[in-house]
Amino acid sequence: MLAGLALWSLAACASGGTATTEVDPLPSWNPTPVKYALVDFVERVITEGDPRYLPPGERIATFDNDGTLWAEQPIYFEVLFALDRVRAMEADHPEWRTEEPYASVIANDPERLARLSQADLVKIIAVTHTGMTEQAFEADTKEWFATARHPTLQKPFPALVYQPQLELLDYLRAHGFETFIVSGGEVDFIRAFAPEAYGIPPEQIMGTTLGYRFQEVDGQPVIDRLPEVMINGDNVGKPVNIHLHIGKKPVLAFGNSDGDLQMLQYADSGDGPRMMLLLHHDDAEREFAYDRQSHVGRLDKAWDEAKKRGWTVVSMKNDFATIFPATPANDD
Amino acid sequence: MLAGLALWSLAACASGGTATTEVDPLPSWNPTPVKYALVDFVERVITEGDPRYLPPGERIATFDNDGTLWAEQPIYFEVLFALDRVRAMEADHPEWRTEEPYASVIANDPERLARLSQADLVKIIAVTHTGMTEQAFEADTKEWFATARHPTLQKPFPALVYQPQLELLDYLRAHGFETFIVSGGEVDFIRAFAPEAYGIPPEQIMGTTLGYRFQEVDGQPVIDRLPEVMINGDNVGKPVNIHLHIGKKPVLAFGNSDGDLQMLQYADSGDGPRMMLLLHHDDAEREFAYDRQSHVGRLDKAWDEAKKRGWTVVSMKNDFATIFPATPANDD
After folding, report:
1. Do B239 and A221 touch (CB under 8 A)?
2. Which residues touch A6 (CB under 8 Å, ≥6 apart)?
3. pLDDT tens-digit series, residues B131-181
């Protein structure tokens, strides 16, 4: 496996001419077997003549978002956005002050919030995510990303992306990979921060998809967001979205929870070289520790499947040298 | 407008060093105002400092497929595929020999075929496009593209792409544009020939989208094609697909019929430099001539809108120096 690290120093010399020191493309990954396996995989698939060589068009990598590229505790950030939006929309909806589930959200009382049911959350997501144009929703999300702070980590949400994953995305793209996000979150919510945070353009982002309606309003074409789910992007929706948006099986797929199981199964079922990864959140000190019992980002069945199939389990504690970027991603 | 052509000779000199002759990136386009306008648009949006400069990520071009990138007469080629598939499937469906609309298709009697209703066609599309895995459908389409011939032009269908458009796609990509197909046709049908024919990868192809279901069969993950329409990719479905798949407004959009009207309206509504084009089929001698009265590829409302908004109408007769490639695109 040491050959992998040797390869990147050779590559640096060959391409640079004057390069004399080794350039580590993944400085925020500890020098563990996981890092060597990643570099070995990439170096082989880009090397013509290697039995594992893949032409650029086949170098498709898909990443889950919540818990894989950025944090997801204490609850998916999109839910926090929805709760904040209900409070921001209160002025236009005075009736919400006495109407549940909105009244509990406006009161912002932890006990009442904890009692919200799944049906309540669906209502909250619906009123905050639909019934407006794309343009209006984009403005809502961008404002939130610019101003909101994580409740315990006290940082803007776009600063809660994982530095090792930013390096991995860059490393893959520098070697001809296309890097896609395949999320259970709503696609336009992710598009509001991910292009800047990860360098992934909107056309390479997919997720849960609502109904859209095109119409002309006062001579201006607009797209309205409808209160219906066209594609549920989690679980079995991940391979469906991959087929719809990419039309090819990924050769590298990276998730962190049972919601990513089908994406990994689907990607792993293709011919040729493949690498499947799961990020295990086992670092209560620097981030969060959760797996089989967690309500958010549960890692249970996918973990068993990883052991059975030899997928790579990445330990946040052991494999990540750093967790978050030193400078918030949105302060550039 | 002559400045446009001057620009590409300058560019050839600057980049080549030894280039002494002008290199025309669009040899199959006649030197008409349309060609000058196209080259002028592209040269300006790629030139830093020009008020119309666009960074690469905004250089999004969308093309309709039927009638814009390849022919569509006497009827959409996908319908011809469906009719051929019914005949190929007859052996497994002996009951079809006496059951309409299949019996008429199997008999292949022009008079009976002409009497098929829209509902009949929907049935025929459904049995030939759904009820199988993605893998099986891909095999069906690829076999058809390799063997079927156009009824009057007597060529394989992938040879009926327009040479001037192949050059335009190459020219755009060489200047940092991403080129997408936005079709009313079914997305996986198009993906079976378009990557090879146009150099457009599956992830940049969108169209009418059926229901997909992911499941494991004998331990193998498969995607099944369901007899339901998730997205009707024509008309108002074009801006919806563009938003879903790209998430940005195209700066160049090229269509040929009323089915492209909303795509052009949507693309034209963005800020900054834009170019909207419609291909007018007015060349009965070399291809086909049809517009306001045609059942296939009707160009009526979109033509009026083009005149009103100053969109570019491309005359196949006057602006295309050649129509089809000299060598079939699939014989490389």
Report:
1. yes
2. none
3. 999 999 999 999 999 999 999 999 999 999 999 999 999 999 999 999 999
Cα–Cα distance for residue pair A187/A258, rounded to 1 Å:
19
Q: Which residues contact B85 (CB under 8 A, 6 or more apart)?
A: B128, B140, B144
DSSP assignment of B82-135, as one string?
A: HHHHHHHHGGG-GGGGGSTTHHHHHHT-HHHHHT--HHHHHHHHHHHHSSSBHH
List Cα–Cα distances, A298 to A67, A150, A256, A266, in angstroms: 10, 21, 8, 20
Chain A residue with CA closest to B215: the answer is: A236
Q: Name the one residue in this structure whose structure tokens are 């860059």.
A: A170
| Number of neighbouring beta carbons within 10 Å of residue B255 | 30
Collapsed DSSP state (helix, strand, coil) of residue B175 = coil
Among A residues 159-178, those touching chain B with beta carbons less than 8 Å apart: 178
Interface of B with A in 55-94 (CB under 8 A): 57
The verdict on a CB contact (< 8 Å) between B247 and A205 is: yes
Q: CB of A25 within 8 A of CB of A171?
A: yes
A95 burial via Cβ count (<10 Å: 0-12, 13-18, 19+) = exposed
- Identity of the amino acid at A56: P
Looking only at the bridges linking them, the beta strands covering B60-63 and A312-315 are unpaired
Among candidates A29, A30, A28, A9, which has minimal Cα distance to A20?
A: A9
Is A216 within 8 Å of B178 when comparing Cβ atoms? no
Across the A:B interface, residue pairs with CB atoms under 8 Å apart total 86
Helix residue ranges per DSSP H, chain B: 2-16, 33-45, 77-89, 102-107, 110-114, 118-129, 134-147, 163-174, 187-191, 194-198, 237-245, 261-268, 301-309, 316-319
Quick check: B12 pLDDT over 60? Answer: no
Q: How buried is B111 (Cβ within 10 angstroms: 0-12 exposed, 13-18 middle, 19+ buried)? A: exposed
Q: What is the pLDDT of residue A99?
A: 95
Percentage of chain A lying above the pLDDT 90 cut: 89
- Residue type for position A122: V
Q: Strand pairing partners for A275? A: A252
Cβ B328 vs Cβ B156: under 8 Å: yes
Give Cα A321 distance to the centre of its chain. 20
ipTM exceeding the 0.95 mark: no
Using DSSP's 3-state secondary structure scheme, residue B261 falls into helix
Residue of chain B nearest A225, judged by CA positions: B240
Backbone region of residue A235 per phi and psi (left: phi > 0; alpha: psi in -120 to 50; beta: other values): left
Average pLDDT, rounded, for chain A: 92
Residues 6+ positions from B160 with CB-CB distance below 8 Å: B70, B71, B77, B150, B153, B324
Interface contact A245-B240, CB threshold 8 A: no
β-partners of residue A50 are none
- Flag if B247 and A212 touch (Cβ within 8 Å): no
